[in-house]
């Protein structure tokens, strides 16, 4: 039997304990070091920036702030913007408690006034190649009700605000005066060529943007600084809720216009062929949806009234002998009303798509042309029903005309009077008139040929 000294036994136990301790530390150390990384959120802004867009961005900012997001990226691909709402949206970005990057993308985007306000408000401004921001007209426009002094005062206020925000971010302010008073459009190359640059980053895609954001220091509105860690990471898209998607879709000018047109068609169809109110109810629902979209946009309500009047004229032309003139007037009013439905000074780039106007006006013109053709054709064709339909038809004498007697035509016996003397039974005559259920007839010069 082998004897082990007690000192060795104690040493072995101590060594075994130390080994277990080292293994425990090695196993738990990575878990202690690896902390959950803050998420990177991505929100796409498309279509028209309106009051409904503000609600979407507010929700995104709230989610980002609650989760302690590394950064919130707003990918800007809009077609137009309501200036009042865009300015409110810019104020939200300035006061955000998380870093916000505004990225004008994809290539080909002309972000217009939305690009000016949101790129200026963002903590970091970025653009994709072949994109631009700004307008060819003055950024700030007002109606004739304001005096020149008031307009200059308001424009100076906007210029000062944009310059202060760009200067605080270390960006160029050289382009702002021209943009506010005359109009200026800068593409990504022009913006990055200024000294200092009007934007910090030009990135081909989202992956390159995240790479270029790595290590940049952002100063928030409360004065705190944050260093971005985005290298090798991916962004988590923020999905729209069904309600947000519906509101943004309804606030699209072309969609609102088409809903208004379809509402008019449904009510008109109910008028032509009553369906116990089903089509009228559908028209009312479509009208409500159109109104939900229109109230978010700077609408000229006189133009909306013009659309209603245009449909009224087209409907009235069915009952008027105008040969399509009333329909033509209605089409002109419809086109003019559709193209001027939204105030471009309050919402640059917001307008009904030309293709939608052409489709609607073309369809109505085709419908009116087909209706006029059918009406003309029916007027030219002989009357085939009623007493007037007997004119010109042949009849067989069943009771001798002396000159009054009886003739057989269209399966019935009629009293008849001959215009040219007596006519014998079995002869054929032609009907020349109908007077109070009595026919006037004329003898045929030759008997009718028997049917083949």
UniProtKB/TrEMBL annotation:
The keyword Transmembrane applies. Keywords: Membrane, Transmembrane, Transmembrane helix. This is Nodulation protein NfeD. It is a multi-pass membrane protein. The chain crosses the membrane at residues 245-269, 276-295, 301-320, 325-342, 354-376. Residues 254-368 form the NfeD integral membrane domain. It is found in: Membrane. Signal peptide: none annotated. The keyword Membrane applies. It comes from the Bacteria. Residues 388-443 form the NfeD-like C-terminal domain. GO terms for cellular component: membrane.
């Amino acid at each position: 039997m082998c004897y082990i000294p007690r000192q060795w036994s104690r040493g072995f136990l101590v060594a075994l304990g130390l080994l277990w301790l080292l293994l425990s530390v090695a196993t738990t150390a990575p878990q202690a070091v690896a902390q959950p990384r803050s998420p990177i959120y991505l929100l796409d802004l498309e279509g028209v920036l309106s009051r409904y867009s503000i609600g979407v961005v507010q929700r995104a900012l709230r989610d980002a702030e609650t989760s302690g997001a590394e950064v919130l990226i707003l990918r800007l691909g809009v077609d137009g913007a309501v200036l009042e709402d865009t300015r409110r949206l810019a104020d939200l970005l300035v006061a955000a408690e998380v870093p916000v990057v505004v990225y004008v993308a994809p290539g080909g985007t002309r972000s217009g006034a939305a690009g000016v306000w949101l790129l200026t408000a963002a903590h970091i401004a970025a653009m994709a190649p072949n994109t631009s921001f700004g307008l060819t007209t003055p950024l700030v426009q007002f109606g004739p009700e304001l005096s020149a002094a008031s307009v200059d005062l308001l424009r100076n206020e906007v210029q000062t605000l944009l310059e202060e925000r760009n200067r605080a971010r270390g960006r160029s302010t050289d382009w702002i005066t021209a943009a506010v008073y005359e109009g200026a459009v800068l593409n990504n190359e022009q913006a990055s060529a200024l000294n200092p640059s009007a934007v910090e980053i030009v990135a081909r895609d989202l992956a390159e943007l995240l790479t270029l954001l790595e290590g940049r220091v952002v100063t928030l509105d409360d004065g705190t600084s944050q260093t971005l860690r985005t290298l090798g990471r991916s962004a988590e898209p923020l999905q729209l809720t069904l309600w947000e998607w519906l509101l943004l879709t309804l606030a699209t000018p072309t969609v609102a216009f088409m809903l208004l047109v379809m509402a008019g068609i449904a009510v008109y169809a109910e008028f032509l062929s009553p369906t116990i109110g089903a089509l009228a109810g559908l028209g009312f629902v479509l009208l409500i949806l159109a109104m939900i979209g229109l109230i978010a946009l700077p609408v000229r309500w006189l133009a909306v009234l013009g659309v209603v009047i245009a449909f009224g004229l087209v409907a009235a032309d069915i009952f008027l002998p105008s040969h399509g003139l009333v329909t033509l007037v209605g089409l002109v009013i419809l086109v003019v009303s559709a193209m001027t439905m939204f105030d471009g000074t309050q919402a640059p780039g917001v307008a009904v798509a030309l293709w939608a106007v052409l489709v609607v006006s073309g369809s109505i013109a085709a419908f009116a042309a087909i209706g006029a053709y059918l009406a003309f054709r029916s007027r030219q064709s002989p009357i085939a029903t009623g007493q007037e339909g007997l004119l010109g038809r042949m009849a067989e004498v069943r009771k001798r005309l002396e000159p009054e007697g009886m003739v057989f035509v269209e399966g019935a016996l009629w009293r008849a009077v001959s215009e040219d003397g007596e006519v014998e039974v079995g002869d054929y005559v032609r009907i020349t008139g109908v007077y109070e259920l009595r026919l006037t007839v004329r003898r045929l010069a030759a008997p009718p040929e028997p049917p083949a």
